[in-house]
Amino acid sequence: MKRLAILGVIAGLVAALTTGATAAAKVQKVSVTMTDFKFTPKAITLQTGVPVELTLVNKGGVEHEFMVYAPPKAAPDDWDEYVMDNTYFKDMGEVEVVFRNQGAVASTRMFEVELEKGKGATVLFTPSKKGTFEIGCHVEGHYEAGMKGTFVVK
Ligand SMILES: [Cu+2]
Predict the structure, then answer these.
(1) CATH, residue 73
(2) Which of 72, 85, 111, 142 could form an S-S bond across to 147 if both were Cys, CB 3.0 to 4.6 Å?
């Protein structure tokens, strides 16, 4: 009886490890660091249909924003309004933002992640649209200072 129980536990452990390994292989993990005033790396490339764990860390001295949107033909008068209408996350279903030590928010209307200095968050979503998009921080003056990047989905 005792031996059977141990075998059962071992079988359970193997099953759990196998499941974990399979799940890990199917997630795209990307990290982006925000500083004053740039994103590193400047370009990220993702695949459609595979869940993404995008970790953002603000290592700068001020607040920064992470936005992804269709590149505008000319700088809009109101960036927030433009990004709300043209965010990559539009019509993508639920996007979850897990703030480091501050809980999580899930929304179907996510268009930006704001992080105070020293804060971090992980954005969970599954890309459904292909194309080349722009990453930008639109805290006043940051984008103009070079805080932008490229978000490519294949
Ligand atoms: Cu910024």
Answers:
(1) 2.60.40.420
(2) 142
Q: Are 123 and 54 in contact (CB under 8 A)?
A: yes
- Number of other residues whose CB lies within 10 A of the CB of residue 100: 14
Domain count, the chain: 1
- Residue 64's domain comprises 27-153
Ion ligand 1 residue ranges (Cβ < 5 Å): 64, 137, 139, 142, 147
- 34 Cα: distance to centroid of ligand 1 (angstroms): 7
**In angstroms, rounded to a whole number, what is the distance separating the alpha carbons of residues 56 and 41?**
11
Q: What span, in angstroms and rounded, lies between the C-alpha atoms of 15 and 18?
A: 5
H helix intervals, the chain: 2-25, 79-86
Are 126 and 52 a contacting pair, CB within 8 Å?
yes
41-56 confidence digits (pLDDT tens)? 999 999 999 999 999 9
**Average of per-residue pLDDT values in the chain:** 88
Amino acid present at 104: A
